Amino acid sequence: MNDKTKGLIFDLDGVLVTTEYNHFVSWKKIAKAIDVSFNEHDNEQLKGISRADSLKKILELGNKAISEELFEELLAQKNEFYLNSIKKINRSNLLPGVIELLQSAAQMGLKCAVGSSSRNARFIVTKLELDFYFSTIVDGNDVTFPKPSPEVFLKGAQRMNCQPNECLVFEDALSGVAAARAGGFMSIGVGNPLLKNVADVYIDSLTEFRLEAYA
Ligand code: B16
Ligand code: MG
């Protein structure tokens, strides 16, 4: 059971913004290039994990071994595909209820953080004009151990001066919910039915979330 909530930690891709699909499409192109079959079901294993770990999973799926040089090349190529696909990203790509929840948190005096595995998280938050709402952003550049390690969320809580049991973590990925649990955080699974019996609380969309019940 959570203490009175003082901080909210949001995953980025798939919780704040629709970019999880862009990651999937970019990885699909990479998988095709190395002749590995890869579908949305396989992609569930990639959600929330780092870029390098994602490529390792795809290689595992295809039972492939590649050179270090090609590995690095494919990581760079995937990021190029991804960045090209989000060139025009803007507030219309936010998931429903994001702005309303961030505004309610600010009005109630709660701090908000981003806790994302993406190395592009800061750039995306700025493109979405959301910087104002977050007291800190912890992203893939800030951690030694990516999700499902809790490091990204523990750093977020620490930077907000909160204990894990004073924070809620909003996640769309199995790896993210596992990270929240490992860090002693209450997890709110969002928009991914696979999280229904895994996260502490499940909602289809942030529009359903009633912050008053936790603060
Ligand atoms: P990048 P999140 C994660 O972000 C995504 O879920 C995952 O699909 C992606 O591979 C990972 O970031 C790394 O992203 O290639 O941009 O560094 O869901 O933790 O916000
Ligand atoms: Mg996510």
What does this structure look like?
- The protein has about 220 residues and is α/β, with parallel strands linked by helices.
- The protein has two domains: about 140 residues, Rossmann fold, CATH 3.40.50.1000; about 70 residues, DNA polymerase, domain 1, CATH 1.10.150.240.
- It has eight helices and six strands; from the N terminus they run E-H-H-H-H-H-E-H-E-H-E-H-E-E.
- Strands 3-2-1-4-5-6 form a six-stranded parallel β-sheet.
- Helix 8 links the parallel strand 4 and strand 5.
- The two termini are about 15 Å apart.
Sum this structure up briefly.
This protein is of the alpha/beta class.
Main features:
single chain; 215 residues; alpha/beta; Rossmann fold; DNA polymerase, domain 1; 2 domains; 6-stranded parallel sheet; 8 helices; 6 strands; 39% helix; globular; binds 1,6-di-O-phosphono-beta-D-glucopyranose; binds magnesium ion
